[in-house]
Design brief:
This protein folds into 2 domains: about 5-100 and about 285-305, 3-Layer(aba) Sandwich (Rossmann fold), CATH 3.40.50.720; about 100-275, NAD(P)-binding Rossmann-like Domain (Rossmann fold, 3-Layer(aba) Sandwich), CATH 3.40.50. Helices cover about 35% and strands about 15% of the residues. It has helices at about 15-25, 35-40, 60-65, 85-90, 100-115, 120-125, 155-165, 190-195, 215-220, 240-245, 285-305, and strands spanning about 5-10, 25-30, 50, 70-75, 90-95, 145-150, 170-175, 185, 200, 225-230, 250-255, 275. It binds NADP nicotinamide-adenine-dinucleotide phosphate (NAP) and 2-keto-D-gluconic acid (8YV).
Length: about 325
């Protein structure tokens, strides 16, 4: 058997797994009983790791692969990849930016509308045959409201564009104002939350943004405010959010991401003002195909030219 040059950390779609195995002779790390021990024993010639935002790449794995030159990841988020360890060794890291913007923004908007208007709640109400016993409670208007965006990046910008179709006032918070953005920059996240009817979180994950949506920010959004998260569960103080929702100090939430996926705080399951989604924002046939294509293009580009196409670093 020739030495392994490409190592796949975790499973992707079955067709992608086959392509990686058949065209690139990739080894399937997740199929090994002790993946790290296996990498240490057999990974001496590995040049490329193929992974995903979900499966990531740890510093220990990088340390086990002395000839690693590139980490090619499916997904735009890189909080699960040990970037410092990669940087220290000059290892390139690629992700799949832009191709998923529309679908993630669409789902953010879907969650916002659902949390405000009670679509999923109404569906449960009808299916439980409660309609004949009385009408559905009034809900919250969406059009013309104030939308705050935490993280006006590639996805956040598309959320803002969707919102302008709903005649919303828009403001955002980043570490710095974004060049050319026509929307109001707010340097204080708590002030943004206090102003907003709806706060959509589309910032990067990782240690720098952990707990950014704090108890104070949640309280500023308040009992009529709705929090939507399509970023990472780590960005929100989840315990404080659950407490605020249970006590009615936060009006509602639409959540695609959680701190300990696939585990969701049990208290949320009983709340009709909360819409829950299983980290599905990029999960359309079209977008997943585009993400797969870009992942393979990054891999091919690295093998052909020594450079990935869409580097994170
Ligand atoms: P992006 O273009 O890099 O945008 C991220 C934004 O976050 C930037 O505007 C950045 O502005 C801001 N930001 C970064 N650190 C910050 C901080 N400490 N405080 C305030 N703002 C900060 O990323 P993207 O492509 O839009 O993706 C955003 C995230 O969405 C990904 O990282 C991923 O975690 C998540 N995502 C989730 C799904 C899903 O399925 N739910 C799918 C795709 C992506 P500054 O640099 O000016 O601060
Ligand atoms: C993916 C994501 O579904 O791109 C990201 O950062 O979170 C999602 O698009 C998933 O994490 C891929 O593994």
């Amino acid at each position: 058997m020739s030495a392994i040059q490409i190592l796949q950390v975790g499973p992707l779609a079955p067709q992608t797994n086959s392509t990686l195995q058949e065209r690139f002779s990739a080894a399937a790390l997740w199929q090994q009983a002790d993946p790290l021990a296996w990498a240490r024993e057999h990974g001496g010639e590995v040049r490329v790791v193929v992974t995903s935002a979900r499966h990531g790449c740890t510093a220990a794995l990088i340390g086990a692969l002395p000839k690693l030159e590139a980490i090619v990841s499916f997904g735009v988020g890189y909080d699960s990849i040990a970037l410092d360890a990669a940087r220290a060794r000059g290892i390139q890291v690629s992700n799949t930016p832009d191709v998923l913007n529309d679908c993630v923004a669409d789902l953010a908007f879907g969650l916002l509308i659902d949390a405000a208007r009670g679509i999923a709640h109404g569906d449960r109400f009808v299916r439980a045959q409660r309609w004949p016993q009385g009408g559905f409670p009034l809900t919250t208007r969406v059009s013309g409201k104030k939308l705050g965006i935490l993280g006006l990046g590639r996805i956040g910008e598309i959320v803002a564009r969707r919102a302008s179709g709903f005649d919303m006032e828009i403001a955002y918070h980043n570490r710095r104002p974004r060049d050319g953005a026509p929307w109001r920059f707010e340097g204080d996240l708590k002030a943004l939350a206090a102003w907003s009817d709806f706060l959509v979180v589309a910032v990067v994950g990782g240690p720098e943004t952990a707990g950014l949506v704090s108890r104070e920010v949640i309280d500023a959004l308040g009992p009529k405010g709705i929090l939507v998260n399509v970023s990472r569960g780590s960005v929100i103080d989840e315990a404080a959010m659950v407490e605020a929702l249970v006590e009615g100090r936060l009006g509602g939430a639409g959540l695609d991401v959680f701190r300990d996926e696939p585990n969701v705080p049990p208290a949320l399951l009983a709340l009709d003002n909360v819409v829950l989604a299983p980290h599905m924002a990029s999960g359309t046939h079209e977008t997943r195909a585009a993400m797969t294509a870009l992942t393979l293009q990054n891999l091919e580009a690295f093998l052909d030219t020594g450079k990935v196409l869409t580097p994170v670093l």
